[in-house]
Write a structure and sequence with these properties.
The complex is a heterodimer of chains A (about 525) and B (about 110). By secondary structure, chain A is mainly alpha-helical. Chain A has 19 helices and 2 strands. In chain A, strands 1-2 form a two-stranded antiparallel sheet. In chain A, helix 11 packs antiparallel against helix 12. Chain A is globular. By secondary structure, chain B is mostly helical. Chain B is about 70% helix and about 0% strand. In chain B, helix 1 packs antiparallel against helix 2 (about 25-45). Classes of the chains: A mainly alpha (about 525), B mainly alpha (about 110). The interface of A and B includes residues 148, 161, 181, 182 and 187 of A.
């Protein structure tokens, strides 16, 4: 058994205390170790993704205890892809945090950043529902610290909302886990999937309740309307690099829905039939509509981007809730796109903030570095709104074509197309007010000292994210082929289940004399 | 016993939700604490209720209670304790900074 699979969790877990203990007063050393850790993580994640790409399902039994009693980490195509995406995103976010000096405006940014990565990686890799809860808590408690990094009343206030909402979500998660355990007697995902077949068809109330509760919990994480209330304030007030890193956190919810509802409560299961299309699809369409309308309605740039995140999560959830092989593949393509696009937009919001008094969408004097910032904003807005030529357009086409054969095609097409139009209008309004009208406003008289523009490293970080978006578009062919193979693996969970349950460990091979 | 445990969970949950909807930090934190108590008892009951049954494997004992929910509850208690401490600190900071203990957004922010 190789130990590579546990490394994405172990590496930040060792690095973060080291940064706190040994380098707490030296921001330079902290930066070096944090960057080195993220680079090593990208290497490990790429290796894992490469190993999984031929269909291998990697299994890591902690302490060599066999499932379902031991804790297992499982690496299949989906989880390794998400781990790689997180690691790459983390690199650019970290570069921006260093370039803009955000990491020096409060204490322990790098340590919390590593703990956050640990939680996200663990949530993607775990094969056990209770450990999913534990890793959710790990990533949440780090995110509480990051959310109020650099302080300030507005941020603390948004932080209270964010923490309270997530505490309620965690409580709901525990209720869901209790219901699952009471019905099946296990929390290992593969084992639950197997035992659901044995549930008495006349007594399915408990398991249906568990399925709905779990869906609610993951929908909270994914900010699906009407469970999105925590998102706008907290993402708008969080420090820019933190908000950019949070772009992956809503995807954790989407990942959990894909994982649990393809393997455990899969669409053919009679017990939970109709849950996805009858409940999840309308909610997803609603969050798409509300998110995109919010782009047009927002009065501040940071709120605008937060609503764009809700809208793009709505798009992802629309694709997921159709639950066909093609729609899940489309959803995965769009998840990668929307993570990168949302992160880039949050960083651009911060670029705009330097040199402006506030983020109101009103005409104000030209900001330093406006030419480059406005160009980056335009590219990111095109990507987010889903105009050609960038990957948002490709992703949207994939989702529309996946929806075409389903009976819900009319609704999906109507909402997706109309809401995209609204998003385009909203982004172009914001862009023209922010950058074009700035020329007509004379610079303030009393501003004697020239405001410092963003550093080159900040621009490089945003540019890198946009470059990845472009690459995601250029290599859309291979990417969609790979997403389709992931989806195919998800809809045939037997190898996953048998790998998890049939691999022997300590418990299953008792030695003589015990 | 089932009736007692179930109604206790129900009452705790109802009280917790009521307090959470008050939207001031102190009642909300109390409400969330009540909810975590409710969920801990619920998790404990998910392994079936028994009286006088040992959770540890020992020779000569016939009846066992399920040890796993107890492990789950233990983890859940530790996590919820930590989280409550965090939220108390952040809420205190927010209250002292802005002299206002409302949880929802101030109305003026979106109106202007």
């Amino acid at each position: 058994m190789t130990h590579w699979l546990v490394m994405p969790v172990i590496l930040p877990a060792i690095l973060a205390p080291f940064i706190v203990l040994a380098a707490r007063y030296h921001i330079g050393i902290q930066r070096t170790f944090s960057l080195a850790g993220v680079l090593a993580m990208i290497g490990i994640a790429a290796g894992l993704a490469w190993t999984a790409s031929d269909g291998t399902i990697m299994l890591y039994q902690l302490g060599d205890w066999a499932a379902p009693f031991g804790i297992v980490l499982v690496g299949d195509k989906l989880s390794t892809l998400m781990v790689l995406l997180t690691a790459v995103l983390a690199l650019f976010v970290l570069l921006y945090a260093i370039g803009s000096g955000w990491d020096d405006r409060g204490r322990h940014f790098h340590a919390l950043f590593q703990f956050q990565l640990m939680g996200i990686m663990g949530a993607f890799l775990t094969g056990d529902l209770f450990n999913l809860f534990v890793f959710f808590e790990v990533l949440l408690i780090a995110s509480y610290g990051l959310m109020i990094h650099a302080g300030g009343n507005a941020r603390l206030r948004a932080g209270v909302q964010y923490v309270l909402f997530n505490l309620l979500g965690s409580t709901l998660f525990l209720f869901a886990l209790g219901a699952v355990y009471a019905e099946t007697g296990t929390l290992n995902m593969a084992d639950v999937a197997q035992r659901l077949a044995l549930v008495d068809p006349d007594e399915t109330v408990g398991i249906r309740l568990a399925a709905v509760l779990l869906l609610l919990v993951f929908a909270i994480k994914a900010a699906v309307v009407p469970l999105h209330f925590w998102l706008p304030s907290s993402y708008a007030e969080a420090p820019a690099p933190v908000a950019a890193l949070f772009a992956i956190m809503t995807k954790v919810g989407a990942y959990a829905i894909i994982r649990v509802y393809t393997m455990i409560f899969h669409p053919d299961l009679d017990v939970t039939a109709g849950l996805q299309t009858a409940w999840l699809l309308p909610a997803a369409l609603l969050s798409l509509a509300i998110g995109m309308a919010g782009i047009l309605a927002a009065k501040h740039l940071d709120r605008l981007v937060a609503f764009a995140v809700i809208g793009s999560m709505g798009m992802v959830m629309v694709a997921i809730s159709l639950f066909t092989e093609t729609s899940i593949a489309a959803a995965l393509y769009y998840i990668v796109h929307s993570t990168l696009a949302a992160a880039a937009l949050f960083l651009i919001v911060d670029l705009v903030r330097t040199g402006r008094a506030n983020l109101d969408l009103t005409a104000q004097p030209i900001i330093p570095g406006a030419a480059l910032t406005s160009a980056l904003f335009m590219v990111a807005a095109i990507a987010m709104a889903g105009l050609p030529p960038l990957s948002g357009f490709v992703g949207k086409l994939l989702i529309l074509s996946a929806a075409f054969p389903t009976p819900h095609a009319v609704w999906v097409w109507a909402v997706v197309l109309i809401s995209s139009l609204i998003a385009v209008v909203g982004f172009s309004r914001a862009g023209s007010v922010l950058f074009w009208k700035a020329k007509s406003i004379p610079p303030a008289e009393q501003a004697t000292e020239v405001a410092q523009g963003p550093t080159a490293l900040s621009f490089c970080a945003v540019g890198g994210l946009l470059f990845l978006l472009a690459a995601h578009t250029v290599f859309a062919g291979p990417a969609t082929t790979y997403m389709a193979s992931i989806s195919q693996q998800l809809f045939n969970p037997e190898p996953y289940i048998s790998t998890v349950l049939d691999t022997p460990g300590k418990l299953s091979t008792p030695t003589e004399g015990h | 016993m089932e009736l007692l445990v179930a109604s206790a969970i129900g009452i705790l949950t109802a009280g917790g939700i009521y307090l959470t909807l008050r939207l001031r930090t102190f009642p909300v934190i109390l409400g969330i604490s009540l909810l975590t108590y409710a969920v801990n008892v619920f998790l404990f009951a998910s392994g079936r209720l028994t009286i006088g049954a040992a959770p540890v494997l020992t020779d000569g004992i016939e009846r066992y209670s399920d040890p796993l929910p107890q492990a789950l509850v233990l983890t859940a208690i530790v996590i919820s304790f930590g989280m409550t401490a965090v939220v108390v600190m952040i809420a205190l900071g927010s209250y002292l900074g802005s002299d206002d203990d409302h949880v929802d957004d101030p109305a003026s922010e979106d109106v202007k």
